[in-house]
Design goal:
With about 400 residues, the chain is mainly alpha-helical. α3 runs antiparallel to α4. The protein folds into two domains: about 200 residues, Growth Hormone, Chain: A, CATH 1.20.1250; about 190 residues, MFS general substrate transporter like domains (Growth Hormone, Chain: A, Up-down Bundle).
Length: about 400
């Protein structure tokens, strides 16, 4: 491991909370697919399965920032333990209802409860890094770079694992395993009190939500559009590989995209940057847009693998700069909530991007579907440009 990353893990307690956080957030790339595979197996309908998964995603979008706000206010341990226990109960009930063949409508409130109790643990880990490196904030970029690599690894391996479990073991296994990951990882993470950020009770007269922060208000839709890019690339890439007669290579194609992002994250985190975070973030957004032009034009699978590697190079550096900006522009009492806001926006964007790209694939084929990530990247760049002054002002005043 390169020296900056080796030094990072010399921080007391870092190895333990990173390992627990990795296990706990494995589920973020698994539960949606797990629900689709389970519910479609017992009902025979992908439409119902998709609706149940969408219910979980929407309730997650509502609940995740709220639990993060409580974590900032009362402490991670006090909030995480009851939340992950409630999440385990919700998924147990959901699996039981599906397996018992109860009326379809009963699945929706249980899925909503599971989504409300699903935390954006990546935001909690980044908040813990911020506290652990409070005496050496220059290393925070390296920590966020490493976490981006972890996210890439999770989104590459999670869908493969859950599909293998649901199709090779039992349909319920694809949902049971991520639920166990959330429970075990979440409890292990909460148990590590030594690296936990101190609770910061609400100050008199302070605003209630991180969304009242102008910087967060700008960056949340930008991260939403970035999520659309991720979701649309996945669906478009799978459909493209199938259209080329090589569906089995779809995972390799998407892996090239993720590998480009992960390699760029490691490179980015090992460098010392002088340019302001707001400028790096804006440049990253425009590079992201430019990198998504070639996939629209390519009509060969092997060339596409080469192209998407370079398309992925701007993903992680842009996200790292974005998370760094959130850390910089929100007050400490709202840090976990602010990070959870943008993390949740990415998750919602992934679901939206998958849906939009899927509709274009059905109607026009895979190549036009690549216009969805390109359009989303363009929208993200334009919103970022429009809000650049507000973000940079917040960065300079922090």
């Amino acid at each position: 491991m390169a020296s900056p990353y080796r030094d990072l893990f010399a921080v007391p307690g870092a190895r333990s909370f990173v390992a627990a956080g990795f296990v706990g957030r494995m589920s973020m790339s698994m539960v949606g697919i797990g629900i689709v595979l389970l519910v479609s197996a017992v009902t025979g309908s992908y439409g119902i399965a998709g609706a149940v998964a969408a219910t979980l995603s929407l309730s997650y979008a509502a609940g995740s920032p709220l639990s993060a706000r409580f974590a900032d206010r009362y402490g991670q341990h006090r909030v995480l333990v009851p939340v992950v226990l409630a999440n385990a109960v919700s998924f147990t009930v959901l699996i039981s209802f599906a397996q018992a063949g109860l009326p379809v409508w009963t699945l929706f409130p249980v899925a909503a409860a599971a989504g409300l109790s699903q935390v954006s643990l990546g935001a909690w880990v980044r908040a813990r890094w911020t506290h652990a490196l409070r005496d050496n904030p220059a290393r925070l970029g390296t920590a966020f770079s490493f976490e981006s690599v972890v996210d890439e690894a999770i989104f590459v391996t999670g869908p493969l694992v859950v599909t293998a479990l649901a199709t090779g073991v039992h349909p319920a296994a694809g949902l049971a395993v991520p639920a166990v990951c959330t429970l075990v990882g979440g409890l292990a993470f909460a148990a590590q009190r030594g690296t936990e950020p101190p609770p910061r009770p609400r100050e008199p007269g302070a605003g209630g939500s991180a969304l009242r922060n102008p910087g967060v208000l700008v960056m949340t839709p930008v991260f939403l559009m970035m999520g659309v890019v991720f979701g649309a690339i996945d669906v478009s890439g799978i459909a493209f590989a199938e259209d080329q007669g090589h569906k089995g290579l779809a995972g390799v194609l998407l892996g090239c995209y993720a590998f480009g992002s992960g390699a760029a994250a490691l490179w980015y985190g090992a460098r010392n940057w002088r340019a302001p975070l707001s400028r790096r973030f804006l440049v990253g957004l425009f590079l992201l847009m430019a990198g998504l032009v070639p996939p629209v034009l390519v009509d060969d699978l092997w060339l596409m693998m080469f192209v998407v590697f370079f398309s992925g190079l701007s993903i992680a550096p842009t996200g790292i700069a974005g998370y760094g900006l959130i850390q910089r522009i929100v007050p400490p009492r709202q840090l976990t909530e602010g990070l959870a806001m943008v993390s949740t926006a990415v998750g919602v964007g992934v679901a939206l991007g998958s849906s939009l790209a899927g509709r274009l694939v059905d109607a026009f084929g895979p190549r036009p579907a690549f216009l969805v990530p390109l359009g989303a990247a363009a929208a993200a760049a334009l919103v970022g440009l429009a809000g650049h002054r507000a973000i940079s002002k917040r960065e300079l005043s922090s």
